[in-house]
Design brief:
- With about 500 residues, the protein is an alpha/beta fold.
- It is about 45% helix and about 10% strand.
- It has helices at about 40-45, 45-50, 80-95, 130-145, 155-170, 180-195, 205-210, 215-225, 240-250, 255-265, 275-280, 295-300, 340-345, 345-365, 375-390, 410-415, 430-445, 465-480, 490-495, and strands spanning about 10-15, 25-30, 60, 70-75, 110-115, 150-155, 200-205, 285-290, 310, 320-325, 365-370, 400-405, 420.
- Strands 9-10-8-7-11-12-13 form a 7-stranded parallel sheet, sandwiched between helices. Strands 1-6-5-2-4-3 form a 6-stranded mixed sheet, with helices on both faces.
- Strand 3 and strand 4 (about 70-75) form a beta hairpin.
- Helix 9 (about 240-250) crosses helix 10 (about 255-265) and helix 11 packs across helix 12.
- The radius of gyration is 25 Å and the shape is globular.
């Protein structure tokens, strides 16, 4: 494998758990005695047989089973220095880049997933700020040099937010963390700011879940067609997609049988797409989807936030974000919307759901991902909002459409309603990857959790002047304790800046 491919790689920072992702290679931390913690079993495989030959010299290596798992020792008899940890990581990545591991079909570059090394059982947790800064710098440089897309994954909100603050700060100082042009970066900052201020809502279309391996509409119809006894009519393909679904419902014995077949085909995917995790990392309170699956919910839960309330079947909870499922839910077979009849009756059966989407278009900025804006119901709802606003002569952009279709004409149909972010690229996989890099930038600018700031373990991220300011804030935090109730708001605000 060439270490200098034409396309530079990218470092993605993800809030979640590694086992949720579909990657080509994973780096698993261990120690010089090759003790692998049990929570790595789901990605490390059979660790009894996996120990690389001649371990721990070198202190990294591929699993002896031949699986695409590289082990890296982050703990010796003595604590590692930052430089030694980084050296080992760099050599591990170069070993991976020169290996025979192939990328998954439909993917632009190979993906390597790893945790924030050394801050757990590696014993370097008290220096997590310095370690995190060193890892981010090294991973960014090696991703670009080796042509690898690197997924740095953490479930810890403080570590995730600190990493995003570091990237934003370095970008502001001229260190390029995203292969996006100035206009694209400006749009990422704008959307990230909207998310940080609670003004961004999400709309997830089928394209988001297709990236996780779920079928497209055409593929779903084809799979359903295989379940019909006998051959389909020769002119079946001439029918509109909704009429095809209507025909299949009749051929399979009714809507209930069709919906059960849909759920069986979709199945219970365990791996989320990169976009699911990037969107979940933005911390948006409101989201809408036409997808049946539960992958976005899984991605949100992996950030250590509560699983979203699923509308319209669950009551809204102030402590949870919510997700409106316009076309049904995999756990509720009768709710599936697929046939012509389902779409015609949608307004009569689900008018409040449509009204909720319209309310978001009127009151929030909606980020639309993975959609084609060809869904009749969604088009009608958006057009009604446009008609409503035309009466007041108010011209406002209701959202941003992230387009990976490569069809430039579509944006002209919606130019007065949505900003259009066109993902460039000759092949679809290149356009999807550009969307993922853009969403990674948006997520970085959306991060608001600052609980790491007064945590001494993150001091390594701060320069001398910043440390002086933070030290003063810590003293102020101590001074507020035992004060009157009037100081409670100040004490609460300062306490929220502590990571532990």
């Amino acid at each position: 494998m060439s270490e200098n491919p034409s396309a530079p790689g990218h470092l993605f920072v993800l809030h979640g758990v590694i086992e949720n992702f579909d990657f080509d290679v994973v780096i698993v931390p261990t120690d010089s005695a090759f003790v692998v913690e049990s929570h790595w079993s789901s990605v490390a495989g059979d660790t009894v047989r996996a120990r690389p030959a001649d371990w721990p010299r070198p202190p990294f290596g591929r699993s002896a089973t031949g699986e695409p798992v590289w082990f890296l020792s982050v703990a010796d008899a003595q604590l590692l220095t930052d430089d030694e940890l980084v050296r080992r990581l760099r050599e591990t990545l170069r070993d991976i880049a020169s290996s025979d591991v192939e990328k998954l079909a439909g993917r632009a570059l190979r993906r390597v997933a790893l945790p924030v090394l050394g801050i757990g059982r590696g014993g370097l947790g008290e220096r997590r700020g310095a370690i995190l800064g060193a890892l981010l710098d090294t991973l960014r440089a090696e991703a670009q040099a080796l042509g690898l897309d690197i997924l740095l994954v953490t479930p810890d909100p403080a570590v995730f937010s600190a990493a995003q603050h570091v990237r934003r700060n370095l970008e502001a100082k001229g260190s390029k963390h995203w292969e996006l042009d100035d206009a694209e970066m400006a749009e990422a900052r704008r959307l990230g700011g909207l998310a940080a201020n609670g003004h961004l809502a999400l709309f997830l279309g089928a394209g988001v879940s297709m990236a996780a391996g779920l079928p497209s509409w055409d593929t779903l119809i084809a799979e359903l067609g295989k379940r019909v006894g006998g051959e389909l009519p020769k002119d079946f393909g001439e029918l509109d997609a909704l009429d095809q679904a209507e025909y299949l419902a009749s051929a399979l014995g009714g809507a209930e049988k069709l919906n059960d077949a849909v759920i069986e085909i979709i199945g219970r995917k365990q791996k989320v797409a990169l976009a699911h995790a990037l969107l979940a990392g933005m911390g948006c309170r409101e989201a809408v989807t036409t997808n049946y699956d539960d992958l976005y919910e899984k991605a949100v839960e992996a950030t250590r936030r509560r699983r979203p309330t699923i509308l319209p079947w669950e009551a809204v909870d102030a402590e949870r974000p919510w997700l409106l499922k316009l076309h049904g839910d995999i756990d509720r077979s009768p709710s599936i919307v697929l046939t012509r009849r389902d779409f015609v009756l949608f307004d009569a059966k689900s008018r409040p759901a449509g009204s909720l989407l319209q309310a978001l278009l009127l009151t929030k900025h909606v980020l639309i991902i993975g959609a084609s804006l060809s869904d009749g119901n969604v088009i009608r709802l958006a057009m009604e909002v446009d008609e409503y606003l035309q009466k007041s002569k108010v011209k406002s952009i209701r959202g941003t459409f992230v387009d990976t279709s490569g069809v430039e004409a579509r944006q002209h149909l919606w130019k007065d309603q949505f900003r259009w972010f066109v993902c460039e690229g000759k092949e679809r996989e290149d356009r999807v990857r550009r969307m993922e890099m853009f969403l990674d930038a948006v997520a970085a600018f959306a991060a608001t959790d600052a609980r790491w700031l007064l945590d001494e373990r993150f001091d390594g991220l701060l320069d001398e002047r910043d440390r002086e300011v933070v030290a003063s804030a810590r003293r102020l935090t101590a001074d507020t304790r035992g004060g009157s109730g009037l100081l409670a708001p100040l004490e609460s605000a300062l306490s929220n800046l502590r990571g532990h």
